[in-house]
Amino acid sequence: MHSNMNRNESRVLKLLFENSKMPISEISDRLLLNRNTVSKIITKLNREYIERYTITLKERENSLYIIAEMENIDGLDDDIIEYYKMANGNYLVVMNKDSLSGNLQYKNLNIAYKRVLNNDMEKVDLYCDYCDSIISGKPHVLDVNHNKLYFCCDTCKSEYIQNHNATI
Question: Where is the TRASH domain (predicted)?
Fold first, then answer.
């Protein structure tokens, strides 16, 4: 149950609003409170009042982009700049920094300060896990113990299964 917030709790909360990363020692110095007292106040605030902390990303001279791996992109149409369906079924999504919110459900998240849109970028080759030749078309995929194996053709995939039947 929430109790009324006392004056020191209110002062600490105000500083946390300004900068949620502010160290306890700085809060203690600014409010002329003991560090242990500040620590106990923050613990109480976290337990009774604070639902979550948020972040503000630093601006750079280049635009800031969010790159996230997501299971689902439904409802993000306006936020997505581009996306790619990955072999594991997830999506690799590029969004503006303004799209980052606490409601965003992601597996991995990275930040990029510059996008390079260059059609002359080097192509990454995908090799067959059976014969080691370059896969030129759509790969034939086999899931083995939660690992995806890629084959250039049905023949390589079938021969792999036949030769490794005991381990699949």
Answer: 128-164
Which token pair is 15? 């500083």
Where do the H-state alpha helices sit in 19-81? Answer: 24-31, 35-48
Task: Tell me the sheet residues that pair with 25.
Answer: none
Its sign, for the CA torsion 78, 79, 81, 87, is negative
Q: Which residues contact 75 (CB under 8 A, 6 or more apart)?
A: none
Measure the CA–CA gap between 68 and 81, rounded to whole angstroms: 12
Strands of the sheet containing 108-112, edge to edge, are 80-85, 91-96, 65-70, 108-112
Half-sphere exposure for 79 (CA within 13 Å, toward CB): 17
pLDDT tens digits for range 117-151: 555 445 567 889 899 898 888 889 998 877 788 89
Whole-structure pTM value: 0.40
Take residue 139 and report the two structure tokens written for it.
């790969």
Do the Cβ atoms of 82 and 94 come closer than 8 Å? yes
Q: Identity (one letter) of the amino acid at 13?
A: L
- Sign of CA pseudo-dihedral 70, 75, 81, 85: positive
95 burial level (CB within 10 Å; 0-12, 13-18, 19+): buried
110 pairs with which residues across the strands?
67
The tokens for 158 are 């079938």
